[in-house]
Amino acid sequence: MSDIRIATAEDQVLLDKEAKYCSYGDTVHYIEPPRIFSRCEGSYVWDTEDQAYLDLQMWYSAVNFGYANPRLNNALKKQIDTLPQIASQYLHKGKIELSEMIAVDAKNKFGLDGRVHFNVGGSQSIEDSLKVVRNASNGKSLMFAFEGGYHGRTLGASSITSSFRYRRRYGHFGERANFIPFPYHFRGPKGMTKEEYGSHCVQQFARLFETEYNGVWDPKTNQCEYAAFYVEPIQGTGGYVIPPMNFYRELKHVLDQHGILMVSDEIQMGFYRTGKLWSIEHFDVQPDVIVFGKALTNGLNPLGGIWAREELINPKVFPPGSTHSTFASNPLGTAVGLEMFKMTSEVDYGAMVMAKGKYFLEGLQDLQKRFPIIGDVDGLGLALRCEICGPDGFTPDKATLDYMVEEGMKGDMLVDGQKLGLILDVGGYHKNVITLAPSLEISYPEIDLGLKLLEQLLVRATTR
Protein backbone atom coordinates (compact mmCIF):
# COMPACT_ATOMS: atom_id res chain seq x y z
CA MET A 1 0.00 0.00 0.00
CA SER A 2 1.41 3.38 -1.02
CA ASP A 3 1.77 6.50 1.04
CA ILE A 4 -0.16 9.69 0.35
CA ARG A 5 0.31 10.67 -3.27
CA ILE A 6 2.12 13.96 -3.97
CA ALA A 7 1.20 16.09 -6.98
CA THR A 8 3.80 16.49 -9.69
CA ALA A 9 5.44 19.89 -10.03
CA GLU A 10 3.45 20.61 -13.18
CA ASP A 11 0.17 19.61 -11.53
CA GLN A 12 1.01 21.63 -8.44
CA VAL A 13 1.38 24.78 -10.54
CA LEU A 14 -2.11 24.20 -11.93
CA LEU A 15 -3.55 23.43 -8.48
CA ASP A 16 -2.06 26.64 -7.10
CA LYS A 17 -3.72 28.57 -9.92
CA GLU A 18 -7.01 26.80 -9.23
CA ALA A 19 -6.79 27.76 -5.57
CA LYS A 20 -6.45 31.41 -6.56
CA TYR A 21 -8.68 31.82 -9.62
CA CYS A 22 -11.41 29.14 -9.58
CA SER A 23 -14.66 29.23 -7.65
CA TYR A 24 -14.97 26.23 -5.40
CA GLY A 25 -18.75 26.53 -5.64
CA ASP A 26 -18.87 24.33 -8.72
CA THR A 27 -16.21 21.85 -7.58
CA VAL A 28 -15.92 19.13 -4.95
CA HIS A 29 -12.45 17.79 -4.16
CA TYR A 30 -13.09 14.26 -2.95
CA ILE A 31 -9.39 13.47 -2.61
CA GLU A 32 -6.24 15.45 -1.86
CA PRO A 33 -4.44 16.34 -3.95
CA PRO A 34 -7.09 16.35 -6.69
CA ARG A 35 -6.21 14.45 -9.85
CA ILE A 36 -5.83 16.30 -13.13
CA PHE A 37 -6.78 14.15 -16.10
CA SER A 38 -5.40 14.36 -19.61
CA ARG A 39 -7.24 11.81 -21.79
CA CYS A 40 -9.98 9.20 -21.82
CA GLU A 41 -11.18 6.23 -23.86
CA GLY A 42 -13.75 3.50 -23.33
CA SER A 43 -13.93 2.68 -19.61
CA TYR A 44 -10.67 4.43 -18.71
CA VAL A 45 -9.27 7.86 -17.93
CA TRP A 46 -5.59 8.76 -17.63
CA ASP A 47 -4.01 11.40 -15.43
CA THR A 48 -1.13 13.69 -16.34
CA GLU A 49 1.36 10.98 -15.33
CA ASP A 50 -0.36 8.64 -17.81
CA GLN A 51 -1.68 6.47 -14.99
CA ALA A 52 -4.81 4.58 -16.06
CA TYR A 53 -7.96 4.40 -13.94
CA LEU A 54 -10.88 2.09 -14.59
CA ASP A 55 -13.97 4.28 -14.21
CA LEU A 56 -17.03 2.61 -12.69
CA GLN A 57 -19.12 5.76 -12.34
CA MET A 58 -18.78 7.34 -15.82
CA TRP A 59 -19.42 10.96 -14.89
CA TYR A 60 -22.51 10.15 -12.82
CA SER A 61 -23.95 8.11 -15.69
CA ALA A 62 -23.51 10.87 -18.27
CA VAL A 63 -21.09 8.81 -20.37
CA ASN A 64 -23.23 5.69 -20.72
CA PHE A 65 -21.67 4.70 -24.03
CA GLY A 66 -18.00 4.95 -23.08
CA TYR A 67 -15.48 7.74 -23.22
CA ALA A 68 -14.61 9.00 -26.71
CA ASN A 69 -17.16 6.69 -28.32
CA PRO A 70 -16.03 6.83 -31.97
CA ARG A 71 -19.51 6.71 -33.48
CA LEU A 72 -20.92 9.46 -31.29
CA ASN A 73 -17.78 11.57 -31.58
CA ASN A 74 -17.97 11.33 -35.36
CA ALA A 75 -21.61 12.45 -35.34
CA LEU A 76 -20.50 15.57 -33.46
CA LYS A 77 -17.60 16.20 -35.85
CA LYS A 78 -19.87 15.83 -38.88
CA GLN A 79 -22.36 18.29 -37.44
CA ILE A 80 -19.60 20.82 -36.75
CA ASP A 81 -18.82 20.81 -40.46
CA THR A 82 -22.44 21.31 -41.56
CA LEU A 83 -24.62 23.26 -39.11
CA PRO A 84 -22.63 23.78 -35.90
CA GLN A 85 -24.91 26.46 -34.44
CA ILE A 86 -28.21 28.17 -34.98
CA ALA A 87 -30.35 30.35 -32.71
CA SER A 88 -32.90 28.33 -30.77
CA GLN A 89 -35.82 30.32 -32.20
CA TYR A 90 -35.03 28.82 -35.63
CA LEU A 91 -35.69 25.26 -36.68
CA HIS A 92 -33.26 22.61 -37.76
CA LYS A 93 -33.76 19.02 -38.81
CA GLY A 94 -32.09 17.47 -35.76
CA LYS A 95 -34.46 19.05 -33.24
CA ILE A 96 -37.57 17.88 -35.09
CA GLU A 97 -36.37 14.35 -35.72
CA LEU A 98 -35.07 13.82 -32.16
CA SER A 99 -38.37 15.12 -30.75
CA GLU A 100 -40.27 12.75 -33.02
CA MET A 101 -38.12 9.80 -31.97
CA ILE A 102 -38.73 10.39 -28.26
CA ALA A 103 -42.43 11.19 -28.64
CA VAL A 104 -43.19 8.20 -30.88
CA ASP A 105 -41.34 5.91 -28.49
CA ALA A 106 -43.43 7.24 -25.58
CA LYS A 107 -46.63 6.76 -27.59
CA ASN A 108 -45.69 3.15 -28.29
CA LYS A 109 -44.78 2.41 -24.69
CA PHE A 110 -47.30 4.43 -22.70
CA GLY A 111 -50.12 4.92 -25.21
CA LEU A 112 -49.95 8.68 -24.70
CA ASP A 113 -49.51 11.54 -27.14
CA GLY A 114 -46.92 14.04 -26.02
CA ARG A 115 -44.30 16.59 -27.00
CA VAL A 116 -40.60 17.12 -26.35
CA HIS A 117 -39.09 20.33 -25.00
CA PHE A 118 -35.31 20.87 -24.82
CA ASN A 119 -32.99 22.78 -22.52
CA VAL A 120 -29.27 22.75 -21.78
CA GLY A 121 -29.09 20.16 -19.01
CA GLY A 122 -30.81 18.17 -16.29
CA SER A 123 -31.39 20.82 -13.63
CA GLN A 124 -32.63 23.32 -16.22
CA SER A 125 -35.02 20.68 -17.56
CA ILE A 126 -36.31 20.07 -14.03
CA GLU A 127 -37.01 23.80 -13.86
CA ASP A 128 -38.93 23.59 -17.14
CA SER A 129 -40.93 20.65 -15.85
CA LEU A 130 -41.86 22.68 -12.77
CA LYS A 131 -43.24 25.36 -15.07
CA VAL A 132 -45.28 22.79 -16.98
CA VAL A 133 -46.62 21.31 -13.73
CA ARG A 134 -47.41 24.66 -12.14
CA ASN A 135 -49.10 25.88 -15.30
CA ALA A 136 -51.25 22.75 -15.46
CA SER A 137 -52.27 23.08 -11.80
CA ASN A 138 -53.16 26.79 -11.81
CA GLY A 139 -49.93 27.82 -10.14
CA LYS A 140 -49.60 25.29 -7.33
CA SER A 141 -46.05 25.43 -5.99
CA LEU A 142 -46.10 22.48 -3.59
CA MET A 143 -44.71 19.12 -4.73
CA PHE A 144 -44.23 15.68 -3.30
CA ALA A 145 -40.77 14.15 -3.56
CA PHE A 146 -38.87 11.33 -1.91
CA GLU A 147 -36.53 11.20 1.01
CA GLY A 148 -33.18 10.46 -0.61
CA GLY A 149 -34.25 12.09 -3.86
CA TYR A 150 -31.96 14.34 -5.88
CA HIS A 151 -33.17 16.56 -8.74
CA GLY A 152 -30.44 19.19 -9.09
CA ARG A 153 -29.06 22.33 -7.47
CA THR A 154 -30.78 25.19 -9.26
CA LEU A 155 -33.25 27.02 -7.04
CA GLY A 156 -36.36 25.10 -8.03
CA ALA A 157 -34.61 21.74 -8.31
CA SER A 158 -32.96 22.07 -4.90
CA SER A 159 -36.35 22.82 -3.36
CA ILE A 160 -37.56 19.35 -4.34
CA THR A 161 -34.25 17.67 -3.47
CA SER A 162 -34.33 16.15 0.00
CA SER A 163 -30.90 17.41 1.14
CA PHE A 164 -31.39 20.63 3.09
CA ARG A 165 -27.70 21.49 2.69
CA TYR A 166 -28.29 22.35 -0.99
CA ARG A 167 -30.71 25.15 -0.10
CA ARG A 168 -29.65 26.05 3.44
CA ARG A 169 -28.01 29.33 2.43
CA TYR A 170 -30.55 30.31 -0.23
CA GLY A 171 -34.03 29.57 1.11
CA HIS A 172 -36.98 28.72 -1.11
CA PHE A 173 -38.01 30.54 -4.26
CA GLY A 174 -41.43 29.18 -5.06
CA GLU A 175 -41.42 25.40 -4.90
CA ARG A 176 -41.57 23.47 -1.65
CA ALA A 177 -41.66 19.71 -1.22
CA ASN A 178 -43.21 17.28 1.20
CA PHE A 179 -40.65 14.49 1.37
CA ILE A 180 -42.15 11.01 1.49
CA PRO A 181 -40.27 7.85 2.62
CA PHE A 182 -38.89 5.73 -0.21
CA PRO A 183 -39.14 1.92 0.06
CA TYR A 184 -35.50 1.40 1.00
CA HIS A 185 -35.98 -2.21 2.04
CA PHE A 186 -32.49 -2.84 3.44
CA ARG A 187 -33.05 -0.08 6.01
CA GLY A 188 -36.80 -0.52 6.39
CA PRO A 189 -38.78 -2.26 9.14
CA LYS A 190 -37.85 -5.88 9.68
CA GLY A 191 -40.34 -8.65 9.06
CA MET A 192 -41.66 -7.39 5.71
CA THR A 193 -40.83 -8.66 2.26
CA LYS A 194 -39.65 -6.07 -0.22
CA GLU A 195 -43.07 -6.04 -1.90
CA GLU A 196 -44.88 -5.77 1.44
CA TYR A 197 -42.72 -2.82 2.40
CA GLY A 198 -43.47 -1.14 -0.93
CA SER A 199 -47.20 -1.50 -0.30
CA HIS A 200 -46.73 -0.25 3.25
CA CYS A 201 -45.04 2.93 2.00
CA VAL A 202 -47.88 3.54 -0.46
CA GLN A 203 -50.45 3.01 2.29
CA GLN A 204 -48.69 5.54 4.51
CA PHE A 205 -48.75 8.05 1.66
CA ALA A 206 -52.43 7.34 0.91
CA ARG A 207 -53.23 8.07 4.56
CA LEU A 208 -52.57 11.77 3.84
CA PHE A 209 -55.84 11.84 1.88
CA GLU A 210 -58.05 10.18 4.50
CA THR A 211 -59.07 13.48 6.10
CA GLU A 212 -58.54 17.18 5.55
CA TYR A 213 -56.69 17.32 8.87
CA ASN A 214 -53.73 15.44 7.44
CA GLY A 215 -52.87 18.66 5.67
CA VAL A 216 -52.91 18.04 1.92
CA TRP A 217 -56.49 17.38 0.84
CA ASP A 218 -59.78 19.30 0.74
CA PRO A 219 -62.59 16.73 0.45
CA LYS A 220 -65.22 19.46 -0.09
CA THR A 221 -63.63 20.59 -3.35
CA ASN A 222 -61.89 17.29 -4.14
CA GLN A 223 -58.59 19.15 -4.50
CA CYS A 224 -55.03 18.49 -3.37
CA GLU A 225 -52.68 21.31 -2.40
CA TYR A 226 -49.83 19.51 -4.18
CA ALA A 227 -49.36 19.56 -7.94
CA ALA A 228 -47.05 16.65 -8.68
CA PHE A 229 -44.91 13.87 -7.25
CA TYR A 230 -41.30 13.99 -8.47
CA VAL A 231 -39.80 10.50 -8.54
CA GLU A 232 -36.49 8.97 -9.46
CA PRO A 233 -37.66 5.45 -10.34
CA ILE A 234 -34.24 4.23 -9.14
CA GLN A 235 -32.75 6.64 -6.65
CA GLY A 236 -29.47 8.08 -7.91
CA THR A 237 -27.51 10.16 -5.41
CA GLY A 238 -29.63 8.46 -2.74
CA GLY A 239 -27.66 5.27 -3.34
CA TYR A 240 -29.15 3.48 -6.38
CA VAL A 241 -31.99 2.22 -4.23
CA ILE A 242 -34.23 -0.06 -6.28
CA PRO A 243 -37.86 -0.25 -5.14
CA PRO A 244 -40.09 -3.32 -5.36
CA MET A 245 -41.79 -3.82 -8.72
CA ASN A 246 -45.26 -3.26 -7.27
CA PHE A 247 -44.43 0.12 -5.75
CA TYR A 248 -44.96 2.63 -8.55
CA ARG A 249 -48.05 0.92 -9.87
CA GLU A 250 -49.69 1.23 -6.45
CA LEU A 251 -48.40 4.77 -5.94
CA LYS A 252 -49.67 5.92 -9.36
CA HIS A 253 -53.13 4.63 -8.47
CA VAL A 254 -53.20 6.97 -5.45
CA LEU A 255 -51.87 9.89 -7.49
CA ASP A 256 -54.47 9.42 -10.23
CA GLN A 257 -57.25 9.27 -7.65
CA HIS A 258 -56.32 12.75 -6.44
CA GLY A 259 -55.25 14.48 -9.66
CA ILE A 260 -51.53 14.56 -8.85
CA LEU A 261 -49.08 14.34 -11.73
CA MET A 262 -46.16 11.89 -11.76
CA VAL A 263 -42.89 13.37 -13.01
CA SER A 264 -40.23 10.74 -13.70
CA ASP A 265 -36.70 12.10 -13.33
CA GLU A 266 -34.60 9.96 -15.70
CA ILE A 267 -31.53 12.20 -15.70
CA GLN A 268 -29.29 9.54 -14.15
CA MET A 269 -31.17 6.37 -15.05
CA GLY A 270 -32.30 7.15 -18.59
CA PHE A 271 -30.85 5.92 -21.87
CA TYR A 272 -30.48 2.22 -21.01
CA ARG A 273 -28.69 2.52 -17.66
CA THR A 274 -31.23 0.02 -16.27
CA GLY A 275 -31.66 -1.95 -19.50
CA LYS A 276 -34.55 0.16 -20.79
CA LEU A 277 -34.65 3.60 -22.36
CA TRP A 278 -36.44 4.92 -19.26
CA SER A 279 -36.17 3.24 -15.87
CA ILE A 280 -39.88 3.89 -15.21
CA GLU A 281 -40.65 1.30 -17.90
CA HIS A 282 -39.80 -1.49 -15.46
CA PHE A 283 -42.79 -0.61 -13.27
CA ASP A 284 -45.83 -0.77 -15.58
CA VAL A 285 -47.04 2.83 -15.10
CA GLN A 286 -47.69 5.80 -17.35
CA PRO A 287 -45.74 8.91 -16.27
CA ASP A 288 -47.19 12.34 -17.02
CA VAL A 289 -43.80 13.98 -17.53
CA ILE A 290 -40.32 12.54 -18.16
CA VAL A 291 -37.19 14.62 -17.53
CA PHE A 292 -33.94 13.59 -19.20
CA GLY A 293 -30.37 14.77 -19.72
CA LYS A 294 -26.80 13.53 -19.23
CA ALA A 295 -26.39 10.45 -21.45
CA LEU A 296 -28.59 11.78 -24.28
CA THR A 297 -25.35 13.13 -25.78
CA ASN A 298 -22.94 10.80 -23.93
CA GLY A 299 -21.63 13.83 -22.06
CA LEU A 300 -20.43 15.52 -25.26
CA ASN A 301 -22.94 18.35 -25.11
CA PRO A 302 -25.12 19.75 -22.28
CA LEU A 303 -28.51 18.90 -23.76
CA GLY A 304 -31.51 17.78 -21.74
CA GLY A 305 -35.24 18.10 -21.94
CA ILE A 306 -38.68 16.87 -21.03
CA TRP A 307 -41.41 14.81 -22.59
CA ALA A 308 -44.89 15.69 -21.37
CA ARG A 309 -48.41 14.56 -22.16
CA GLU A 310 -50.12 16.52 -24.91
CA GLU A 311 -52.68 17.98 -22.49
CA LEU A 312 -49.88 19.53 -20.42
CA ILE A 313 -47.62 20.96 -23.12
CA ASN A 314 -49.57 21.66 -26.31
CA PRO A 315 -49.15 25.21 -27.65
CA LYS A 316 -52.57 26.35 -26.39
CA VAL A 317 -51.65 25.73 -22.75
CA PHE A 318 -47.86 26.12 -22.97
CA PRO A 319 -47.34 28.73 -25.70
CA PRO A 320 -44.10 29.96 -27.30
CA GLY A 321 -41.83 31.72 -24.83
CA SER A 322 -43.02 29.75 -21.80
CA THR A 323 -39.36 28.92 -21.21
CA HIS A 324 -36.24 29.73 -23.19
CA SER A 325 -32.53 29.08 -23.34
CA THR A 326 -30.12 30.45 -25.93
CA PHE A 327 -28.61 27.01 -26.42
CA ALA A 328 -31.71 24.83 -26.12
CA SER A 329 -32.10 22.21 -28.88
CA ASN A 330 -28.69 23.14 -30.26
CA PRO A 331 -27.76 21.19 -33.42
CA LEU A 332 -24.57 19.69 -32.00
CA GLY A 333 -26.47 18.08 -29.15
CA THR A 334 -29.41 16.88 -31.19
CA ALA A 335 -27.06 15.33 -33.76
CA VAL A 336 -25.37 13.22 -31.09
CA GLY A 337 -28.74 12.34 -29.54
CA LEU A 338 -30.06 11.10 -32.87
CA GLU A 339 -26.95 8.99 -33.46
CA MET A 340 -27.26 7.53 -29.95
CA PHE A 341 -30.83 6.41 -30.73
CA LYS A 342 -29.74 4.90 -34.05
CA MET A 343 -26.83 3.10 -32.41
CA THR A 344 -28.94 1.58 -29.64
CA SER A 345 -31.66 0.49 -32.07
CA GLU A 346 -29.35 -1.63 -34.19
CA VAL A 347 -28.85 -4.32 -31.53
CA ASP A 348 -30.92 -5.47 -28.57
CA TYR A 349 -29.24 -2.96 -26.32
CA GLY A 350 -31.53 -3.61 -23.40
CA ALA A 351 -30.81 -7.34 -23.38
CA MET A 352 -27.08 -6.67 -23.59
CA VAL A 353 -27.19 -4.31 -20.59
CA MET A 354 -29.32 -6.71 -18.54
CA ALA A 355 -26.93 -9.60 -19.22
CA LYS A 356 -23.87 -7.57 -18.23
CA GLY A 357 -25.69 -6.26 -15.16
CA LYS A 358 -26.59 -9.77 -14.04
CA TYR A 359 -22.98 -10.87 -14.43
CA PHE A 360 -21.66 -7.85 -12.50
CA LEU A 361 -24.25 -8.30 -9.74
CA GLU A 362 -23.30 -11.95 -9.32
CA GLY A 363 -19.70 -10.83 -8.84
CA LEU A 364 -20.77 -8.32 -6.19
CA GLN A 365 -22.82 -11.00 -4.43
CA ASP A 366 -19.73 -13.20 -4.31
CA LEU A 367 -17.76 -10.36 -2.73
CA GLN A 368 -20.60 -9.86 -0.23
CA LYS A 369 -20.27 -13.49 0.89
CA ARG A 370 -16.56 -13.03 1.54
CA PHE A 371 -16.56 -9.54 3.09
CA PRO A 372 -18.97 -8.99 6.01
CA ILE A 373 -18.64 -5.19 5.67
CA ILE A 374 -20.78 -5.39 2.52
CA GLY A 375 -24.24 -5.07 3.96
CA ASP A 376 -26.28 -4.96 0.75
CA VAL A 377 -25.82 -5.34 -2.97
CA ASP A 378 -28.49 -4.85 -5.59
CA GLY A 379 -28.79 -3.86 -9.21
CA LEU A 380 -31.03 -3.29 -12.19
CA GLY A 381 -29.20 -3.45 -15.48
CA LEU A 382 -25.91 -1.63 -14.99
CA ALA A 383 -27.16 0.51 -12.11
CA LEU A 384 -25.58 -1.34 -9.19
CA ARG A 385 -25.09 -0.69 -5.50
CA CYS A 386 -22.72 -1.99 -2.83
CA GLU A 387 -23.40 -0.74 0.71
CA ILE A 388 -20.40 -0.58 3.02
CA CYS A 389 -21.18 -1.18 6.69
CA GLY A 390 -19.52 -1.98 9.98
CA PRO A 391 -18.62 -5.52 11.05
CA ASP A 392 -22.30 -6.18 11.82
CA GLY A 393 -23.14 -5.78 8.13
CA PHE A 394 -25.70 -3.06 8.84
CA THR A 395 -24.31 0.01 10.63
CA PRO A 396 -23.34 2.58 7.94
CA ASP A 397 -19.58 3.04 7.64
CA LYS A 398 -18.85 6.18 5.63
CA ALA A 399 -15.25 6.37 6.86
CA THR A 400 -14.35 2.98 5.41
CA LEU A 401 -15.87 3.83 2.03
CA ASP A 402 -14.04 7.17 1.97
CA TYR A 403 -10.83 5.25 2.62
CA MET A 404 -11.59 2.86 -0.26
CA VAL A 405 -12.26 5.75 -2.64
CA GLU A 406 -8.96 7.42 -1.71
CA GLU A 407 -7.05 4.15 -2.08
CA GLY A 408 -8.61 3.56 -5.49
CA MET A 409 -7.40 6.96 -6.66
CA LYS A 410 -3.78 6.25 -5.74
CA GLY A 411 -3.41 4.27 -8.95
CA ASP A 412 -1.16 1.67 -7.33
CA MET A 413 -3.15 -1.56 -7.51
CA LEU A 414 -1.68 -4.43 -9.50
CA VAL A 415 -3.68 -6.87 -11.62
CA ASP A 416 -1.76 -9.25 -13.87
CA GLY A 417 1.27 -6.97 -13.66
CA GLN A 418 -0.65 -3.84 -14.70
CA LYS A 419 -0.79 -0.88 -12.32
CA LEU A 420 -4.27 0.65 -12.16
CA GLY A 421 -6.51 3.01 -10.26
CA LEU A 422 -10.24 2.66 -9.73
CA ILE A 423 -12.78 5.49 -9.85
CA LEU A 424 -15.80 4.95 -7.60
CA ASP A 425 -18.75 7.15 -6.74
CA VAL A 426 -20.14 7.59 -3.23
CA GLY A 427 -23.87 7.88 -2.61
CA GLY A 428 -26.57 6.82 -0.21
CA TYR A 429 -28.44 8.33 2.70
CA HIS A 430 -25.37 7.82 4.92
CA LYS A 431 -22.76 8.28 2.15
CA ASN A 432 -21.71 4.66 2.58
CA VAL A 433 -22.87 3.24 -0.77
CA ILE A 434 -20.71 2.56 -3.81
CA THR A 435 -22.98 3.53 -6.70
CA LEU A 436 -21.71 1.67 -9.73
CA ALA A 437 -22.54 3.08 -13.17
CA PRO A 438 -19.99 1.54 -15.55
CA SER A 439 -19.98 2.16 -19.27
CA LEU A 440 -22.79 0.23 -20.91
CA GLU A 441 -20.13 -0.77 -23.45
CA ILE A 442 -17.98 -2.32 -20.70
CA SER A 443 -16.57 -5.73 -21.66
CA TYR A 444 -16.87 -8.84 -19.53
CA PRO A 445 -13.08 -8.86 -18.93
CA GLU A 446 -13.37 -5.26 -17.72
CA ILE A 447 -16.17 -6.29 -15.34
CA ASP A 448 -13.87 -9.00 -13.99
CA LEU A 449 -11.10 -6.44 -13.66
CA GLY A 450 -13.40 -4.07 -11.79
CA LEU A 451 -14.36 -6.84 -9.35
CA LYS A 452 -10.69 -7.71 -8.76
CA LEU A 453 -9.89 -4.07 -8.03
CA LEU A 454 -12.86 -3.81 -5.69
CA GLU A 455 -11.63 -6.93 -3.91
CA GLN A 456 -8.21 -5.35 -3.41
CA LEU A 457 -9.81 -2.25 -1.92
CA LEU A 458 -11.92 -4.38 0.41
CA VAL A 459 -8.83 -6.27 1.55
CA ARG A 460 -7.06 -2.97 2.25
CA ALA A 461 -10.08 -1.66 4.13
CA THR A 462 -10.44 -4.73 6.34
CA THR A 463 -6.74 -5.18 7.12
CA ARG A 464 -5.60 -1.61 7.63
TrEMBL record:
Per its Swiss-Prot or TrEMBL entry, what cofactor is needed?
Answer: pyridoxal 5'-phosphate
Q: Which PROSITE patterns match?
A: AA_TRANSFER_CLASS_3
Q: Name one GO molecular function term.
A: pyridoxal phosphate binding
Annotated CDD domains: OAT_like
Matching InterPro entries: Aminotrans_3 (IPR005814), Aminotrans_3_PPA_site (IPR049704), Class-III_PLP-dep_AT (IPR050103), PyrdxlP-dep_Trfase (IPR015424), PyrdxlP-dep_Trfase_major (IPR015421), PyrdxlP-dep_Trfase_small (IPR015422)
Q: Does the keyword Transferase apply?
A: yes
Task: Kindly state which keywords UniProt assigns to this record, in alphabetical order.
Answer: Aminotransferase, Pyridoxal phosphate, Transferase
Database matches in Gene3D superfamilies: Aspartate Aminotransferase, domain 1, Type I PLP-dependent aspartate aminotransferase-like (Major domain)
- The protein's superkingdom reads Bacteria
SUPFAM superfamilies found in the cross-reference section: PLP-dependent transferases
Residues that span the membrane, as ranges: none
The family this protein is said to belong to: Belongs to the class-III pyridoxal-phosphate-dependent aminotransferase family.
* This protein's name: Aminotransferase, class III
